[in-house]
Amino acid sequence: MKTNFLYVGAAVVFAVLVIVYSTATSNLSEEIASISGDKKVEIVSEELVVRFPVNLEFKRPEVLNQVRFTPVKFSHFDHQDVNCAKCHHTWDGKSQIKSCAAAGCHDNLKQKAAPHSYFKAFHTLQSDISCRGCHVKMNKEGKTDLATAPCANNACHPKRERAHN
After folding, report:
1. H or E segment at 24?
2. Residue 99 gets which letter from DSSP?
3. Entry pTM
4. From residue 76, how far is each of 55, 82, 111, 164 by CA, in Å?
5. How far apart are CA 55 and CA 37, in angstroms?
6. How far is Cα 135 from Cα 101, in angstroms, rounded to an integer?
7. Residue 133 half-sphere exposure toward CB, CA atoms < 13 A
8. Cβ-count burial of 64 within 10 angstroms (0-12 exposed, 13-18 middle, 19+ buried)?
9. 31-86 confidence digits (pLDDT tens)
10. Nearest to 43 by CA among 29, 57, 56
């Protein structure tokens, strides 16, 4: 009888801990969602401190600024269910995350078709670590209806609003 009571007590304690953890996690998500603009979030654990902008606009390397599409606006909050290392695939989980255009990563800025080009990092259809490839895969699985084509005037590169005189 005492053994059964012990098991029930342990199960209750475990359930309370799960509820406390899930409440703390959802509060963190709400806190992140409430931050906008160029503010940064800091998540601290025993092994790691990660700072990231909640919303950002991709700044193209200077060499690439002569393009006709609007810059991509990206929300880390909207992608919180994706492990950071999926997109930041060379990150060791401890050091500072480097730019995609950093030396040795996607630093070929001029040749779009090159295997490790900056362009391919975001647009490769056959890779679920590229933005476009991941969203195309999600579309096929029915998880989203984010339009990835055509490139102009879609969810990634929205139509530019022109000022009228």
Report:
1. helix 2-34
2. P
3. 0.63
4. 6, 9, 28, 33
5. 6
6. 22
7. 14
8. middle
9. 444 544 456 666 666 666 677 788 888 777 777 666 677 788 888 888 888 888 88
10. 29
